[in-house]
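Hi support team,

I'm opening this ticket because the web form for multi-chain structure prediction keeps timing out on my end. I have pasted the exact lines I submitted so you can reproduce it. The total is 1166 residues across three entries, so I didn't expect it to be a heavy job. Is there a limit I'm missing, or should I split the entries? Thanks in advance, R.K.
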Amino acid sequence: MSTTTSNESRSRGKAPAGERLADWADGRLGIYSLAKANLRKIFPDHWSFMLGEVCLYSFIIIILTGVYLTLFFHPSMNEVEYHGSYVPLQGQLMSEAYRSTLNISFDVRGGLLIRQIHHWAALVFLGGMFVHMMRVFFTGAFRKPREINWLFGFLLFVLGMFTGFTGYSLPDDLLSGTGIRFMEGAILSVPIVGTYISFFLFGGEFPGHDFVARFYSIHILLLPGIMLGLVVGHLILVFYHKHTQFAGPGRKNTNVVGMPLMPVYMAKAGGFFFLVFGVIAAIAAIASINPIWTMGPYRPDQVSTGAQPDWYMGFAEGLIRAMPGWEINFWGHTLVLGVFIPLVLFGVVLMVIAAYPFLEAWVTGDKREHHILDRPRNAPTRTAFGVAWITVYMVGLIGGGNDLIATHFHLSINAVTWFVRIAFFVGPVIAFIVTKRICLGLQRRDRDKVLHGRESGIIKRLPHGEFIEVHEPLSQEQMYTLTAHEQYKPVEIGPTVDENGVERKVKGSEKLRAKLSKAYYGEDSQIPKPTVEEYREITSGHGHH
Amino acid sequence: MSSHDISEENLPEQRGAAQGAVRLADEKNPFADPGLPPHEHRRQDVDERAAKRSERVVALLFTVSMLATIAFIAAYVTIPVDKAIYVFPLGHISALNFALGLTLGTALFTIGAGAVHWARTLMSDVELVDERHPIEASPETRAKVHADFQQGAKDSQLGRRKLIRTTMFGALALVPLSGVVLLRDLGTLPGTKLRHTLWSKGKLLVNMNTNQPLRPSDIAVGSLTFAKPEGLEEKSEEFQDEIAKAALMIVRLQPEDIKDKRELEWSHEGIVAYSKICTHVGCPISLYEQQTHHVLCPCHQSTFDLSDGARVIFGPAGHPLPQLRIGVNDEGYLEALGDFEEPVGPAFWERG
Amino acid sequence: MKKLSARRRHPLAAVVVLLLALAATGGLYAAFAPAGRAQADDSAQSLTIEEGKKLYEVGCASCHGTGGQGTSDGPSLVGVGAAAVDFQVGTGRMPAQQPGAQVQKKPNIYSQAEIDQLAAYVASLGAGPSVPTKQQYDPAGADVARGGELFRTNCTQCHAFKGVGGALTKGKFAPDLKDVSAKHIYEAMQTGPQNMPSFPDTTLTEQNKKDIIAYVKAINSDQTVSQGGLELGGLGPVSEGLFAWVFGLGALIVVAVWVAARTAKAKKS
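Hello R.K., no limit was hit. The queue was backed up. Here is the completed structure from your submission:
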């Protein structure tokens, strides 16, 4: 979209070339109506609002570098002998997939860099999605009208995990092959259909000659295609809903305050793409990732200790490692609970966080739109729940790295595993209680700040000898910000007997909701925010602090 | 999600909107929304020299980017792909990867830094306000859409002509089945493939390292040896599939250390042969501790006691490692006395 | 001081205190942790007796028995051979210092001559593998790639792809193979120290061992080229994931803070 104007066209009294091009496009695409609403669209400034962009940009980087890698990668499991430039593998038998990955790393100039950018960007992509999701969770940005977008984001995270896993398996090296072997074992554990699924997936017995080619089409076509669609949908909804914002002076539920897309956010967001790409490229220059040549080609009878998946699968790995070996045999069948339970738990843990917004909406019964974000402290139960969930996730991650934790901290691997087993149940409970208490403490602090002002640390001696600490009153902006949040009242079941003395049936779900609502918004779960009357009483007369 | 039974008074009062405007007027309310703070100027807005400085910084960043791209191309052309250099503290690394990565990273980063610096220091930083509009349609629109839909449904006569409706849904439900059926040839059926390995009576135990058949005297107490069935060559088509089941781990214990009766029976002079494939999810288990006779799986830490029938003593595995019954043939070589009596590797539904 | 107390209530004060506390704990740990180890080092320093038996009686007999027959504290040395002594004493594992899951390597306190004398004495108790000659263990000219295959079959399950070691049961571990001499690697394979199984010549030939040593030296030494950059400990996805979070996401969040922050305002004074 060039906006340069040639003198010639000016002299003939025509519009500038850019404008004419835009007119031409508008006549066919109707871009002006689209631009009218969006060109000066307002985006609020906050660093945590950029986390989603980290994901978007690393996704784009992954696609760009991935396309480059497909130009050199051969998704084939034909056995070949290696005669490339990496000496410690000379003459070894390996699959064509592994050999072509070695060639990308050692013989294609810049191939190693692109491979490393691709893999680092994948780790950052998943990490970015995790952090972005937690930001949305803890600020309550998932509330109406954004529940569907929350689900889109969640799906992107889950699909990202599987896209990453299939990609990590493509080079057919010993580490990823071990991961595939694990996957086969996990599929076999599925009751009734497991064996069949495994044989269909691998084209027969494990490892067979098919899975690299099949994973290849899943990794480069099927999953990224779905993800691209979801990303577009996610972005359209972000535009349509307009961005949420934190409470503050002038920021209301009915407006959005910030900087316009054109030019500020075009420059900031566009620039941020280059910043993300630059950082990831620099990391790929500095740090090695997945050096498949040290791992050797896959053979089902070889293995290395320290066999872990990439981090985003680490929590599933931890569940598998910590599970006791339960197995039930009956009527000629085997129920492999030792593998199947972690497999189910993996899904359950993820589903719990995905379903949370709907639970909260049901408990509050709130059907209004929410565009002002909560500070995590002002939603103690939600925050505590989120921290408990993260604790479960982290315990899983610890379990996934139990061997490295054992060697690096001089612990017994059995002790680490037992810690994980216990912490999986105890950890989230403790995390929930502690977080809730911290939130309430912070709410009290906010309340004190509003009512008494900020503790300045300056000690003054009064004429009669008393020492006091000077409290600085807050500005009106600060006071508004600290009292802007809403506080729900717990839902009551209401009278069970109507005025005519007829008993009304109370449904179980109603009772449950009343109970949950009390847990969420009862006396023990939130500190009433200061009222104007309280403030007046304190500031008007008696009491200097 | 029936929540209409929650009365509105339980919901918190919403601040902002109408109320906010009222509160703004109420001077006595200390918590009222004071409205957007007035815009304050940046140095660059009031001092043209500062603005000029910002402009130069942005231009400098863009120039650095251009130079970095030129450096990238130069590095690509001049540095051999296999050249290694020592860079503190990274160690010995590929010169090309390092040079390309840093120049590319710089070229990209400086574009971004320039654009952001430009946006932050020179573009207007006056906060603007956009009003939101409810996502929900107005009642009129809602009524219109509902009416349109009903009219359309009525015109189609779908509700009246039950036969059309039923057969259409039937056809739509059946047609995807073709796609499912087409998936059948993705793989062979399991059959009894998971129950059998290449081992059979008389097959010699061939040392993985030397490709020679093993004799009992080769195997010392405390040593660890891996074996494959005679006739299975690395270059053969089926090697991967077969070794995935047939891989064998051979250790020698003092016969008096063997606690399990069957294990002793199936051993030869204290030499025991176990499947190398973990019964949990199939990792090649082989972290053998020769003093404790425990063998640990490096993937998920299932631990088996090789002196006690490979019983599971820790971790997620559900049953012992299958043992291969071995003996010695006429020429003094170790041989298998049959296949494994139970399926090797991970458990599955039909295992029983 | 006045300034300090005035800032005591600053919103960032808690962060500063936390950082100081972290630094202090780390510093204290660094100051005290190695001291414990250093103290014990000189416990066996008075060993100057020249002959193997005398050396043995002083340094080894208390655990392994006066005739090498073994006690409840240490295994019998009859038949372990000179190679085992050369490895155990040469890497400083013996004499053992303290009970624990595993005897660890430490600075060796014997001269090579003394070790040879000890080895000769233990070898005289019963036949066992002798100390390998340079010709046996020298990896020059060995087949590195073949060594890699053998390494992945026999060694990686405990020592990991890069030979950096890994965990065993109950606090035991397989050590890092970096800086272990070719002779000691050879002896370890030959004799199977502690819980490591042995790989005698009958199942892993001399040439096999040389190939393995050549591979270990190729992939896990100071001269090893890590083409992609920092090795991150050669530990695989766990350290990579940690690096991606700390330096990848960490750096990007710092950048995001800069992008979203408001530019400093002109002072109105």
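A quick check on our side: The two ends of chain B are 45 Å apart (CA to CA). Let us know if the file doesn't open in your viewer.
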